[in-house]
Each structure stands twice: as structure tokens, then as C-alpha cells.
Design a protein that fits this description.
Oligomer: single chain
Distance between the termini: 119 Å
Number of helices: 4
Strand content: 5-15%
Largest sheet: 5 strands, mixed
Shape: rod-shaped
Strand order of the largest sheet: 3-2-1-4-5
Structural class: alpha/beta
Order of helices and strands: HHEEEHEHE
Helix content: 25-40%
Radius of gyration: 34 Å
Length: about 140
């Protein structure tokens, strides 16, 4: 019985005498690192939000400011109506006061030398507690 011709099936590309050049991954890795550095520098991890504030309409005393809650931000702590307390307690009291009268104004008075970040934390906490009528005032000298 004569031998049948057999063909070898190969999935490899035909070898025409030239060796294939290897593809270097270095440029790809460089591009990935450049993109990584770009996004790390362009990204912001801070939480930027705007806080709406109302300024008092009048500089003198008015009937609407008579019932206002006065929160003082001092270097030695926070004070509500002259009593030193924590921010959580102040926001709880403000929320309770606003539950009785929703349009009651809340005044925040930062003391000299207090960091702006502390004032922003107080204003942010009060806003989160539902205070809508919030004003920043300054100490009269």
C-alpha cells in the first residue's frame, strides 16, 4: 500500500526565512505611567461645595435678629448663647430651635484669629442640620 501524502497543519505563521522582531513593551508602559501621573495631578480629592450665606439686611438691631441664635466661633471653642459646647450639641440645639420656628435666623460670629476652616465647618454643619437662614456677622469694634 503506497503511503499517502500528508500535509502538516500548522497555525504558526509561515517562516519565510526572516525572524519576527519582538515588540517592545517599554513605550506602552511609559504611556501608561504618563497617563497615571496626568490623572493624579489633574484630579482633586477635595470636596468642593458652595455654601449659600445671607448677609443681614440692616446693620442695626431689628426685630428679626432679636430671636436669632448667636453662635460664636472662638479660639477656645464654640459658644451658643454664651455657653461653650461642642459642634454636635450646637447643631442639635439649632435643629431643635428651628423645629419650633423654621425662619429663626442663625448668626455665626467668628472671633479674630480663628481659622476660616473652623468657621466653614460650623457653617457646613449648620447647613446640614437644616439651617436655612444663616448669616455671618463680625464683631463690632
Amino acid at each position: 500500500m503506497p503511503a499517502l501524502p500528508t500535509a502538516r497543519l500548522s497555525l504558526a505563521p509561515p517562516n519565510n526565512g526572516r525572524r519576527r522582531n519582538l515588540i517592545s513593551l517599554t513605550p506602552l508602559i511609559d504611556v501608561v505611567f504618563i497617563l497615571l501621573v496626568f490623572f493624579m495631578l489633574a484630579s482633586s480629592f477635595l470636596d468642593w461645595r458652595s455654601i449659600a450665606l445671607d448677609s443681614p439686611k440692616q446693620t442695626g438691631r431689628s426685630a428679626s435678629l432679636e430671636q436669632a441664635l448667636l453662635i460664636e466661633v472662638r479660639a477656645d471653642g464654640l459658644r451658643l448663647a454664651g455657653e461653650t459646647m461642642s459642634l454636635d450639641r450646637i447643631t442639635g440645639r439649632a435643629a431643635a430651635a428651628l423645629a419650633k420656628k423654621s425662619d429663626r435666623p442663625v448668626l455665626v460670629r467668628p472671633d479674630d484669629g480663628v481659622a476660616v476652616q473652623e468657621v466653614i465647618q460650623v457653617v457646613d454643619a449648620l447647613s446640614a442640620a437644616g439651617v436655612a437662614n444663616l448669616s455671618l456677622i463680625r464683631r463690632n469694634k
